[in-house]
Amino acid sequence: MAKITGYGFWIDIKSLKGADKRNWITCLVTSGLAGGIAGWFSVSLSADNIETFGSMTEQNYIWFAIAEIVLIYTAVYTYIQVLKNQDILFQKYNEMSMIGGALGFILIGIPMAAVSPLISYKIGFVDLFLGFAIGACINGYRFYKLHIK
Fold it and tell me: 51 forms bridges with which residues in the sheet?
C-alpha cells in the first residue's frame, strides 16, 4: 500500500508494487508533460495577444493541444488505477485533499475572480487552479498531521 510521506505532499514510490508503481510513475510523467505544455501555451501569447513563438501558421498549436489532452487523460486514468488498489487510509487522504482543493477553489479562486475587475486583472484558469492547489496542499498536510504523524 502507498506510504504517504513528506508531510502529506508525497507518496513513497518504493512502497508501491508492480503495476501500481508503473502507473504512478506514468501519472507523474504525463502530468509533468501536460503541465509543461500548459505553461508553454500560457507564455506563447504575450499580454497584447502577440504570438511570441512565431505565427500560428508556423506553429502547429493544434498538435500541442491534442497532446496535452491525451496526457491529461492518461494521467487521470493511471491515477485512478493506483487509487483503486490502495487501502482505506490512502483513499481517505485522496478525498481530504480533493475536498481541500474544492474549498481552495471556492475560498481563494472565487474572491480573486470577484476582485479582479476592480484591480484590472484578467483572471484565468491557472489562477483558479492555484486556489485548488493551495487548498489541496493545506488539507493534505492536515491529513498527515491528524492521521499519520
Answer: 45
